[in-house]
Amino acid sequence: MRPNCDRSGVGGSRQRQAGLSCITTIAKSPITQSSDGTYCGYGTGEDQANVLREELERHKSEGEDKFGRTTFQPVDTATQEQLEEFFEDTNYFTLNPKKRWNGIPEVPLSEKTVYNPYVNIIIGILSYFEVAARQMVPPAATLGPVEGAEGMTLNLSPEALILGTGFAEGTTPHDTLVTKLDDNKGAGNTTLDTSDVLISESSAVEDTTPQPVHDTHATKLGHIEGVDNTTVKTSPDILFLGSGDGFWPDNKLVQASKLSSKSSLKSTYRSCASPLEIKTENNCAFWDNLVQIAVYARQCFIQQENRFFVYSAILTETFIQLFQFDRAGVMYSKRINIHQHPRYFIRIILALASPDPEALGLDTSIQWYDGKRYLTMPTRAENELVRYEIENHKACFLRRAIRGRGTRCWNVIDPKTGDKYLAKDCWRSVDRTPEWELLEMAKGLEGVGQMIGYWEPEMTISSLRGIDRNTPNFRDRTFCRVLLERYGKPIHQFDNKKQLLSAFRDAIAGHRNLWNKGMLHRDISINNILIGKENAPVGSRGVVIDLDMAILLNREGSLAGVDFRTGTRIFQTIMVFQSQMKQKPGTIFPAHDYLDDLESCFYVPCWIWFAYDGPGLLVHPQPRFLCFWGELNPAMASNSKFVFFSQICAS
Q1: Alpha-carbon distance 216 to 234, whole Å?
Q2: Which of 21, 85, 388, 632 counts the highest number of beta carbons within 10 A?
């Protein structure tokens, strides 16, 4: 029997709807912070590092011996014969009498004395293997417009659209970093099977392909933080630049950053393939270094939007260590002695600068084509692909944390019909009920977002890492894309008071409809309440969306326990905040139920009233107490809302 508890969690009773309780089993997971951040964003790189330290602390793991050593096979990067030719043709490495990369000091006086030698060696490796001259046309780039296109041919299965699927049995993305130079069919070819890779001749890209590696230890790269915070800047020591249709084109980077010179855009997180950091053995502290490059990787996820994972590496005068950041956290290799194992080092460098977008962790179903950005997924009929144009070239919403759901939402247009939809990408825990199943149950409900279709290509983090999903201390996630009806703007972007109140009323009614259908939402926020379509009838003037965190209810199980990881921080309830704080032994918190959701609903108009002076008039700077609502410190967040309620009651 469940004990009766009041909202303080120390006794009393709480009336509940009789018999409704959760049947969905949600496995326990370690409680950790998230670097998604507040609406005010992080003020410094150090602030980000502190949160990432907590976010990744229980979600870091050492890869198997093959990770970093045999991850990248000879056919993927360089054959044994090509490596021996490199040593013979260049003077970057001395094989005899002493194995050593030339120029790298054995005992560097400072970190700065290692920068230039490493940059020169890396440039030499990439130049010898002609990485700068190989611009890959990835599989999804050959889709053309797909539907409504002219002169383009598609030879691609839906299962092969996204990294990690459509490969030979027993292989992983680490095993498929393939660049088949002997299969080059010419830059004009528009037919490409997933087993082939198209690479342009060096003469075709000689004047347009930027140098793939930059020394950026003294270059400040801008961050994107919170709602409108772009003041934070950091400096990776070395930056590998990405090229091809998966990365933002130079002309779009100019427009996006309002800069006049393309040369000033060469080093940005938006164009970063892999960030590297250089240390000396004297100042190389594993955990601090990991957090430092995690800051860089997080910006790659945020600014590029279409990354499944990000490679990075730590270099010293003796060792290299490889890292893979993804939605399950971070996996790292053992430290590899670059002088004793120069061939491993070369292959890792070639992989980090690979022209293959899949090898770099890009979602190849999202591509640039003829100045526009597109998203491709199978819909309408089995094995039929539709390519949707992405409005404004970028995601309309994204979560900023590394580990977690990694939600991305895209406003898209069907090229054939002109219909507008919302595409949502998400990495859910493999033990959670898929959102599309809940959306199927919600079909026809007023005030609830409606699904058009979904795509779940059986791609998991374990497959991206090449590990067993049952690896200890590892929680696997699987990718899913859902196509939804497009409604109006998020509720905080209202045009007038009547529209705001009507949308809010119908969204709450939609929440009740979900409850009556046996579902509890658990993630009410300003981004999950949308204004209805133009001239929508009563009941659909506002809709509640995003059932990622929703649970199913019936009479036999129990409601899921309150959990501060569930929901959007700034709209979480006081009870959720208190569940994160240390309590006296025996303290029991009631389960998360509809009362928590209704309290979150209350914070939505409160946030709008204080954050805006009127429609579209955001207050600058944001009221400090709203920033406190999003505080990661649960005591500060809880106290701020207590004070807020006290002032309301006193007024």
Answers
A1: 10
A2: 388
